[in-house]
Specification:
By secondary structure, the chain is α/β, with parallel strands linked by helices. It has helices at residues 18-22, 29-32, 36-69, 73-108, 113-120, 128-134, 159-164, 186-196, 202-205, 219-229, 253-270, 296-306, 309-313, 332-350, 366-371, 382-393, 417-432, 436-452, 455-481, 485-496, 504-507, 516-519, 521-524, 528-565, 583-616; strands spanning 140-141, 147-148, 174-180, 206-213, 236-242, 281-285, 315-318, 321-322, 362-365, 399-402, 407-408. InterPro entries: Glyco_trans_2-like, Nucleotide-diphossugar_trans.
Length: 643
């Protein structure tokens, strides 16, 4: 099918199913790999991708040291210069796009989404109040960011397209929030639900599906308690219970969502009247410690309705994730990690040329979720994996669109600082295992290319997938080398290779003592032109390294201002802390913390876990999802902590 063909939201007169039009590829190896050579090629791609991260981290480091010992100076200097320039560009993205992202957040939280809907979607420039007075069926509620409210009963599932020619209106969407949870305290679950209740149409247009693990001892009691406490607050509240030891199901968030989505789709079809191709249903996945912005669903509704049919069913929507909910009680090392993780996600979403990836909590149409057969039960990186899966099965057409309404959640936290640091280390090791998605994308690209059949269709598919593939590689490469390669390059160049280059300013002097390597070039067997070339490479490398370090400090200090954008949603009395309540003082403190302890955070929660993960994926691609610590989350006798 031509990628520009409009996707139909309904099945009419026996036409192709929308789910098949949305996701034309099945990516089934037994069908695509129909020859011996194709199967051999698949195994080669898989093996290469599984060992590539290991050889990059371990082999790359060993190769640099070997080159120094063997005096292959040009190779070391060239590779270090290119690496330093790449890392400088990464830091520049964090500084520039991070600042732009904060500006986008500041502007977006002030939007009147319903007024924008009237103007941009319906073409009505009149105010929402005028529209309300003329629309008998859409009274408005509240003030400020107003949106219409409905009766408590959803409209009949066929009325939308039967009466409005398939056009979906503001009141027609049903948002279903899936919340995977395991041993999470009730107070935390209530916090997430209270945030959902701020949606003005929550009683009629918002449903909640809790995804429990059957092996959690009090899961059923929690579900019943939630249903009783929040009866009438949402369109409906339901729960799914993921059975243990299912074939092919690896304990984790993804397998939990896989089961919950199947149960939810069945309930929507049999009890609620929404079939898998109903364009009015939007699925939102959030972690159980997440607090969505009060206007997130208004913003999501606006973007969903404004999009064309093809964009609507090919798009995942992503809010910036901010790990500041328990900012005041986070130890310094954990707080540094929270700052950089939050700013990195914001900067990536704000970068117009970035290939956005879903992270932690996101939304997508019911049609797209069904088109890709829901979530896979055997992968640990659920969010990245769902991004890759949707993009692969749609031949690279799916995308992630940011909605700059921050979602707040907790960083791992235990009863004391050391336990909190160790819990964050556990989470970092789990996040690093997302490196296995590089193998998944590479192998599925190969299968998809074989399934496409036609050369140009396959080439187009690979071309569309390359940005995502490159994004996965770049993120893990940067995090994996961040703590070790910059200081290693500085040591190698300034101590072991000092006699093979000069400072650029010394090259312009005539005195032989100014540039000792130049004067002794013939004696050590190095030509003068090589000394000059080496000197220029060192010149660029050192400045790129310095700018990279400065960029990280500046970007980290942005966290002080980012904090104040969301300070009213932070847990605890932040205003009672004289340093925190003053943006300038908090900026100074954050700058000092990042400058002094930033390296330790990047090593403990970034590079070391990546090196461990790179070794582990050589032997297996299936890992148990070990939940991070949370105050009040207790093990239930014999549990392994896996979700």
């Amino acid at each position: 099918m031509d990628s520009t063909e409009t996707i139909r939201p309904l099945v009419e007169n026996g036409e192709a199913s929308p789910t098949r039009v949305v996701a034309p590829l099945t990516l089934l190896p037994q069908e695509a790999l129909d020859t011996y050579l194709k199967r051999i090629g698949y195994h080669v791609v898989e093996k290469v991708m599984r060992v590539l991260p290991f050889f990059t981290f371990y082999g790359g480091t060993l190769a640099l040291i070997t080159c120094v010992i063997l005096r292959y100076r040009w190779g070391v200097l060239m590779s270090m210069m290119l690496y330093s320039c790449f890392m400088f560009m990464s830091a520049a993205e964090l500084v520039v796009c991070g600042a732009w992202g904060m500006l986008m957040v500041w502007m977006t939280v002030r939007n009147d989404w319903y007024a924008m809907y009237l103007k941009d979607v319906l073409g009505d420039d009149r105010s929402p109040k005028v529209r309300r007075n003329e629309s008998a069926g859409s009274p408005l509620a509240g003030s400020g960011n107003e949106s219409p409210t409905l009766d408590r009963t959803m409209p009949p599932p066929t009325r939308v397209w039967a009466e409005n020619n398939g056009e979906i209106g503001w009141n027609d969407l049903l948002h279903v929030v899936m919340i995977p949870t395991y041993k999470t305290p009730m107070d935390c679950l209530r916090m997430a639900l209270h945030a959902l209740m701020k949606y003005s149409l929550c009683r009629t247009n918002l449903a909640v599906c809790f995804a429990f693990e059957e092996r959690e001892q009090d899961a059923h009691e929690k579900a019943e308690q939630i249903k009783q406490e929040y009866a009438g607050e949402f369109a409906f509240v339901t729960a799914a219970f993921h059975p243990p030891n299912l074939p092919g199901h690896v304990p984790g968030k993804s397998s939990n969502e896989c089961w919950a989505f199947q149960e939810l789709a069945k309930e929507l079809r049999t009890q609620r009247g929404f079939d898998p191709e109903d364009p009015r249903v939007v699925i939102t996945v959030i972690d159980d410690d997440s607090e969505l912005h009060e206007n997130y669903f208004e913003g999501l509704t606006y973007h969903y309705l404004k999009a064309s049919d093809e964009e609507r069913y090919m798009t995942m929507f992503q809010p910036p994730i901010v790990h500041f909910k328990n900012f005041l009680t986070q130890p310094i090392l954990v707080r540094n990690a929270s700052l950089f993780t939050s700013l990195h996600e914001l900067a990536c979403l704000a970068n117009p040329v970035d290939c956005h990836v879903a992270f932690s909590s996101y939304s997508l149409s019911f049609i797209l979720a069904n088109a890709v057969q829901g979530w896979d039960p055997d992968f640990i990186s659920e969010d990245w994996h769902m991004t890759a899966k949707t993009k692969l099965m749609t031949e690279g057409r799916a995308r992630v669109k940011p909605i700059f309404l921050p979602l707040m959640n907790y960083a791992p936290e235990e009863d004391d600082a050391w336990s909190t640091v160790m819990s964050r280390w556990t989470q970092a090791k789990r996040h690093a295992l997302g490196i296995s998605e590089i193998v998944y994308v590479a192998t599925k690209m190969y299968i998809g290319m074989c399934e496409c059949g036609d050369f140009w269709r396959g080439a187009t598919f690979v071309y569309r997938m390359l940005p995502l593939f490159g994004k996965f590689i770049a993120v893990h490469f940067v995090v994996g080398t961040l703590a070790f390669w910059p200081p290693l390059s500085h040591i190698l160049i300034n101590f072991y290779m000092w006699h093979s280059w000069c400072y650029i300013e010394d090259l312009q002097k005539t005195c032989s003592e100014c540039c000792v390597p130049m004067a002794a070039a013939t004696e050590v067997g190095i030509g003068e032109e090589r000394i000059i070339l080496n000197s220029w490479m060192v010149y660029f490398q050192e400045r790129a390294n310095a700018c990279f370090g400065l960029g990280l400090v500046i970007a980290g200090s942005w966290g002080a201002f980012y904090f104040h954008l969301v300070a009213d949603r932070v847990e605890g009395d932040w205003y009672g802390d004289w340093v925190v309540r003053n943006p300038i003082f908090l900026w100074i403190r954050t700058t000092l913390e990042v400058s002094v302890l930033g390296w330790f955070s990047s090593a403990a929660f970034g590079s070391v876990p990546e090196w461990v993960a790179a070794a582990r994926i050589m032997f297996t691609l299936q890992f148990h999802h070990v939940v991070a610590g949370m105050v009040g989350r207790k093990e239930d006798g014999g549990g392994d902590g896996s979700l």
